[in-house]
Fold:
Amino acid sequence: MAQTTLPNHVLISINPKAGRKSPKIRAERLKIALEKRGYGVELHTDLDEVSRRANELFEVQRLRALVGVGGDGTAAELTNRTQPGLPITLLPSGTANLIAKYLKLPFNPEKSAEMIETGLTISFDAGKANGRLFLVMVSVGVDADVVRLVHSEREESYRNHTKRGAHISYLSYINPIIQSIKTYKYPQIHASVFADSNSDISHSVIGKWSFVFNLPRYGWGLPLVPGCVGVDKKLDYCIFQGGKLTSALFEVACAQLGSIHRFLPNAKLGQGVRFQITSSVNSSDDSPIPYQLDGDPGGFLPLEIETIPNRFTALAPQKIVKKLERKRIQ
Structure:
């Protein structure tokens, strides 16, 4: 009888431009902890190389997990570069860590090694925006403008060596938020929402700030779409129609207070499998409107979004996987 090769390899991907020693030290600790458990472990700093290697090991059923040391953008980047079904997990080291918090992934490297050994895989849907996969959400509007400015400052700092590395923290958002408050004009956005992937029938929503979610997480845990599950082959949207800073702050505050924003006349929520988001023909502002994907700048409208069922396979704690699988059955 032929022997089955166990998936006993783990690849760890770390960004050398992260600018902090802490993630690198934690990655080394994870490597040591996994090696003590009998895994073959490789630590990579090149995305092309780690993605190629992960795909190779996955094809011969030898990959236990591809571990990204980072946050939501790291998970999305690795998913975009690897085959469907390839198990991905995180050693959280991002700013918001929305996926890690949703899946209850350990921050401690030794506990992460235990989870990698005992955890289970679960397949989530993903979204695709203008050809690129996203795992948590895409947004269009003032927050996307902030993300654009944050990453612009980061790249400038890295090029000029004016900061030690280019790590983004919550403090990195202060100046961009102030700048957006002063300059963002809340141009009108037109969203066409399709209930079926093959249908040309849609309904339209006009707004000033638009979100399309795959997982029910945003920012510091803001519950904008509390019913979103990520395993129903649909994306959930929340569109705010107010066009001022005061209305935006009020809508966010209502969302924080038990998601009561759902009852506001200027908040539109629903589901779809495909979206087309454009600058409204009635908009008085001709400047390009930015969008962001999982906390990274995506570009400018127009935007085509679709659901990709079961595209993201996560390795997570058994208890969380079983709970989420019950939601899938429901």
Q: What stands out?
A: The longest helix spans residues 142-160.
